[in-house]
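Journal club prep — side note

Before the paper discussion, L.F. wants everyone to see what a predicted structure for a comparable chain looks like in token form. Sequence:
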Amino acid sequence: MRSGSTSRATGYQVWVTALLSLNFGILFFDRNALNFLMPFVQPDLNLTNTQVGMFSSALSLTWAISGVLVGRISDRLGSKKPVVVAATIAFCLCSFISGAASSFMMLLGARLLMGAAEGGVMPVSHAIIVSEVRPERRGLAMGVAQNLGSNLLGSGLAPLLLVPIAIASGWRTGFYLAALPGLVTAALIWFTLHEPARESVDPAGPKVTLREAFAHRNVILCTIISVLLVSYLVVCWAFMPLYLTKAGGFAPDTMGWLMATLGISASIGSFAVPALSDAIGRRPVMIAFSFLGLAVPIGALQAGSSWGLAAVFFVGWGLNGLFPMFMATIPAESVDPRLTATLTGLVMGVGEVLGGVIAPFLAGTLADAYGLSAPLWLMGACTLAAGLCALGLVESAPRIVARRMVQN
């Protein structure tokens, strides 16, 4: 098996990682736009908390289905670049539709379409990274591709930009503006990236089936962790802005920069956490940062000053740096790397269906019944369970595994 990364210059590897990170960041800007605009959208469309949760559930459902199907098709056909470009253009169009929505059902339909458009982007992007980036930098590259742009733009810039736009020009304008940058990155991907070479396979060599891949302990545990931490993430996005403005008593602009703190933290964590795992191992990093995620819901429930809460958010949201590790890096290192897009799509898809679909709907129902603090308690339970699951992972970082083999 040959890795395409051996034939690419370092500069091109950096460009591939940076461009895919930017593209996914714009995608997450679109995905998160509704969450940050919800304090304006909810009263305008007369939405209940249960309906608010349904938007996240709907997008997660079609995101999951798309991720599984598109990742599998891409692996079978060996075609990656056209898939990413087509999906990017599609999710830009869906953002325009969201801005034009005049009812709950119309906005729900727009979110369903957006999930279908976006779901296949990250699994295929990870497959490109595996083909084009050297293995010893794979964890860092995957972390940057999935987390740096998504958090810098989708969690950091989005609330700072969209909330003032909504105050000045209305929430619909925010959706229209969110759609435009994706057209630029689609063009850059098409004209500047090469289609990765297909992996050459020794016919006599061992073949790992998808069933065998899911028999590996790491793949099973990463799938469970995906369900738990995707639940944690989407519940936070869907309900933290509402909790801060309604239960916490913070003004909308204060809520905006508090949520942006999460984006700044995750942007740093996007390269710092995977790089740390390259150096000391995946397992200890997965354990430590999963438990660290408890700080966010506990801090919000005990909120005093906005600056103190910002500090707690910054520390606790380092958990976000784990996502490329359990969704792609650890599964790809544990089984045949030819299954990267397929496994990423499946792990992400199961997480989106069981976590992203069920959790926000459950959180909304609990919020209507018990108040807006209920979703935060759900977040805490999810990240605690994820940390306990991480205790069972088998170390897969190439540097650590090689060192242990030498020692033995």
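L.F.'s comment for the group: Residues 1-7, 200-206 have pLDDT under 50 and may be disordered. Keep this in mind when we get to the figures.
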